[in-house]
Amino acid sequence: MPDLPQISEAEFKVMKVIWKYAPISTNDITDRLTQSTSWSPKTIQTLIKRLVTKKVLSYEKQGRVFVYTPLVNEKDYVNQESRSFLQRFYDGNIATMLSAYIENERLSKSEIDSLRSLLSGKDTQEKRKD
After folding, report:
1. What is the model's pTM?
2. How many angstroms separate the CA atoms of 129 and 99, rounded?
3. Which residues 6+ apart lie within 8 Å of 49 measured at CB?
4. What is the full DSSP assignment across 25-83?
5. pLDDT (tens digit, 9 = 90+) per residue, 32-85?
6. Residue partners of 25: CB distance under 8 A and separation at least 6
């Protein structure tokens, strides 16, 4: 998979709305984001234009309205960012990252239990493949 374009935190907030509701009009994007942010409609439109320029979004004019569709899959983008974070801060070692989170009490007991469950399920799946 080729590297996906880098997007800012603000652009990512816009993309989360688009991924959830696509295809979605400019007005609907603006309505949803003005409820959850302090951004002006002009700021939101600027962010949308940047995403189109980065080829993360496509748009179609339907009458007097622009309707946006993502060109980048949410799961692919999040996976890329996760790998980048892991590589940048933990030399690609997920065990080191988890250890740091556990030692600094950044993971709750329920999160640790959830991870245990995921890992034990993965062990079971790997044994089935053998």
Report:
1. 0.74
2. 28
3. none
4. EHHHHHHHHHHHS---HHHHHHHHHHHHHTTSEEEEEETTEEEEEESS-HHHHHHHHHH
5. 999 999 999 999 999 999 999 999 999 999 999 999 999 999 999 999 888 888
6. 62, 65, 66, 67, 68
